[in-house]
């Protein structure tokens, strides 16, 4: 990852830049990385005066990272329901584009995806399909954070695939950061333009095509769905 | 197939209906099926007068089927080049939708696809992707004829998969007919609204995603391509 090649100063400078540009998810990520490096440095420092300076800086960045966390949290809690769309069992016409493509626009610079289950092949495929749509519709996209649970059966395969996807996104100048939270249950997609998409089943509400080579293999509008609910919320955006 | 359940009279009545509605590919198909049944009947008939009536009918339908064949042939030969788009090696942004989606509209009732190679998994997937686009864009689509070569290594698998795709299209009220022509080389897509799309490599000019889970897995605009040429021709439409 690029972070490994940067020192604390560069990381924190970039964090401040992102913060000022309203890219607060990326800023939070960078503050946390920077704080970690400063913590390691302070441990090696014997000069008391220098130690104090380090601690002051660390506290300042921790406060800023906490503020961002609060802001994202409030952003998610407040807001009003824009639309509710129940998806019926076996219904079609529910591709990600059809359901929420209209909210993915040039104002989206950052995206937070909370999706507990990313370890089966079809789940990786759904993630890629979702990212394809983000990259295609959001031309100023810079940062995507994916929060998911560790695959306890094949953690290596999961981290390999996610790393491949991260590297692919990096080629397109989008930083993808993967965070594992093993208590995660709820699914949501938070867009930095102020929209939040909550789907009961997260990204995974499509039935497999049967037989395999049927319409729906690539275009998810043709896929039959599992019953679930889609709620779309609107809040003030991150920057406002 | 539905044809198996119909008698010669019903088939030929339907052929005439399709012919009058300008759905000439389907009409040609039905004439040929009807002629075959009449030929079998005439062989079993001992009454000379009745035999003569049969032969007259057969000749009449053969003439009509030949006229249609000529008309399709001329349609393909005449015409003017609308656009030529060279696809460079490793270029992207060349999904079927991006290349020729604008010509797939409500005026397309029938499509002829000549694609010699349909037996590898990715080739079946390309066919399904192409059909998804047809069904989505052409809301009056009734008939698709696919001409291809027999898979000499695994003909059963090929016919099973194509039969599954045919059954799936039938559910959407589109008759898909598969014709095997083992001398086929050229690739083309003929639309009944007068457009003809000729791609040097047919449907198969996309490189596989590498690694598998990368952008391009579903959205072919992200796929790197093989070098090929796309020519789009415009002729008078079938009905005119």
From TrEMBL, chains A, B:
It comes from the Eukaryota. Residues 1-78 form the MIT domain. One of its GO terms (biological process) is nervous system development. The keyword Ligase does not apply. Keywords: Lipid droplet, Neurogenesis. The keyword Zinc does not apply. Signal peptide: none annotated. InterPro entries: MIT_dom, MIT_dom_sf, MIT_domain_contain_protein1, MITD1_C, MITD1_C_sf. CDD domains: MIT_C (cd02685). This is MIT domain-containing protein 1. It comes from Bactrocera dorsalis.
């Amino acid at each position: 990852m690029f972070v490994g090649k940067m020192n604390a100063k560069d990381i924190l400078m970039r964090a401040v830049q992102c913060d000022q540009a309203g890219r607060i998810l990326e800023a939070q990520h960078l503050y946390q990385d920077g704080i970690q490096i400063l913590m390691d440095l302070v441990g090696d420092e014997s000069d008391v005066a220098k130690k104090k300076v380090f601690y002051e800086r660390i506290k300042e960045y921790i406060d800023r990272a906490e503020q961002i966390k609060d802001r994202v949290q409030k952003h998610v809690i407040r807001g009003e329901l824009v639309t509710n769309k129940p998806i019926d069992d076996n219904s079609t016409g529910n591709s990600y584009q059809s359901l929420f493509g209209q909210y993915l626009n040039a104002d989206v610079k950052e995206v937070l995806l909370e999706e507990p289950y990313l370890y089966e092949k079809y789940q990786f495929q759904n993630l890629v399909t979702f990212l394809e749509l983000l990259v295609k519709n959001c031309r100023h996209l810079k940062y995507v954070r994916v929060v998911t649970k560790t695959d306890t059966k094949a953690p290596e395969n999961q981290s390999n695939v996610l790393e491949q996807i991260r590297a692919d996104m990096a080629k397109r100048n989008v930083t993808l950061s993967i965070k594992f939270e093993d208590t995660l249950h709820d699914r949501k997609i938070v867009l930095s333009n102020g929209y939040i998409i909550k789907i009961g089943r997260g990204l995974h509400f499509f039935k497999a095509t049967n037989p395999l080579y049927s319409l729906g293999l690539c275009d998810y509008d043709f896929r039959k769905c599992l019953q679930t609910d889609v709620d779309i919320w609107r809040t003030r955006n991150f920057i406002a």
